[in-house]
Design a protein that fits this description.
Blueprint (H helix, E strand, L loop, with lengths): L14 H15 L3 E2 L1 H8 L3 H14 L2 E3 L5 E3 L2 H28 L2 E8 L2 E8 L14 E2 L5 H7 L4 H11 L12 H14 L2 E4 L6 E7 L7 E8 L5 H24 L5
Antiparallel strand pairs: 1-3, 2-3, 4-5, 4-9, 5-6, 7-8, 8-9
Helix pairs in contact: 1-3, 4-8
GO biological process, one term: glycerol metabolic process
Protein name: Glycerol operon regulatory protein
Function: May be an activator protein for the gylABX operon.
Length: 260
Amino acid sequence: MAPRKDGRDGSGGVQSLQRAFELLEHLADTGGEASLSELAASSGLPMPTIHRLIRTLVALGYVRQNANRRYALGARLIRLGENASLQFGTWARPLLTELVDEVGETANLAVLERDEVVYVAQVPSRHSMRMFTEVGRRLLPHGTGVGKAILATLPPEEVRALLARTGMPAYTEHTVTDPDAFLRHLATIAEQGYALDESEQELGVRCVAVVIEGSPTPAAISVSGPEGRLTKEAVDRIAPAVRRVAGALSAQLDARGLSA
């Protein structure tokens, strides 16, 4: 369909705005950096159109031009993403509360953002001794249950690239720090349907985490607690509950039209 002279796309939307967001998504798909020619190849848009849109996005701060003359996602997107993540956490809280009521331990919601997992919601347990990973905290994904649950859904080559960028520092002596061993571990997680953090991020803490399928940004929920309460036998009871709530969150995303 030929573009309309008024700049609309025929469905009531503004074509240039649609194309600008498509370029941002193409930048994200390339790992956050691309040349104009690469954007032209991936988007199918003519070079003059891409140049005009990119120039506008750079002026607004949503895209930046690096010293190598390639373009990358700009810092102004961070505030938008962080606010969207916090809103995600707000409407997820009722289901996290249900999970806490059922299993008796702290429930968390985290998203993968710029190679890190960010905790965006938490409902604490009612125990006097409980685990706190505060909202807003950022951690590398290889040492967390939520991070491993998310990475287990990604292609191995994407996981290797992420680990190459972040490294694999040890949070504790139990943290997996070898990429090959970690990828084998992710295959097990994908098969069993949930991830375990066995004192890998904090000594004495066990965590059960499940990815939220269809989330527009990679996300997972978890239940965490001291190993003395969250025993391996308790995991058999808790994991199905975490999977059920993750499925309910996925269904809510779909109902809101937010599924990827």
